[in-house]
Write a structure and sequence with these properties.
With 97 residues, this protein is α+β, with helices and mostly antiparallel strands. It is 41% helix and 20% strand. It is built from 3 helices and 4 strands. A hairpin with a 7-residue loop joins strand 1 and strand 2. Helix 2 runs antiparallel to helix 3.
Length: 97
């Protein structure tokens, strides 16, 4: 089982992410792709990775934009699982942008 590390600790390991507003411990990032097809490809690949990890993001998609929120519900905060998934997303986005 994961342990909470907190948003600040996670942000030290990630680039371009920010701490979510309010009381809830979470990190957020928005990706903007060239078109809807590329945004959907990103989401599909992330969905497969998330399912493999049994760790699912909160996200919102409009056309070429994907807004991501990561937090680990089991620990009521940000964990290393969020860092791992965030790094995967950043690497994938770097290949698609």
């Amino acid at each position: 089982m994961s342990m909470a590390i907190g948003a600040d600790a996670a942000l030290e390991q990630l680039s371009g992410w920010q701490k979510g507003q309010g009381e809830r411990d979470r990190i957020e990032k928005t990706y903007k792709f060239g078109d809807f097809k590329t945004a959907w490809a990103f989401m599909s690949a992330v969905a497969l990775k998330a399912e493999q990890m049994d760790h699912h993001p909160e996200w919102f998609n409009v056309y070429n934009k994907v807004e991501i929120t990561l937090t680990t519900h089991d620990v009521d905060g940000v964990s290393e699982k969020d860092v791992t998934l965030g790094k995967f997303m950043d690497g994938l986005a770097g290949k698609l942008l």
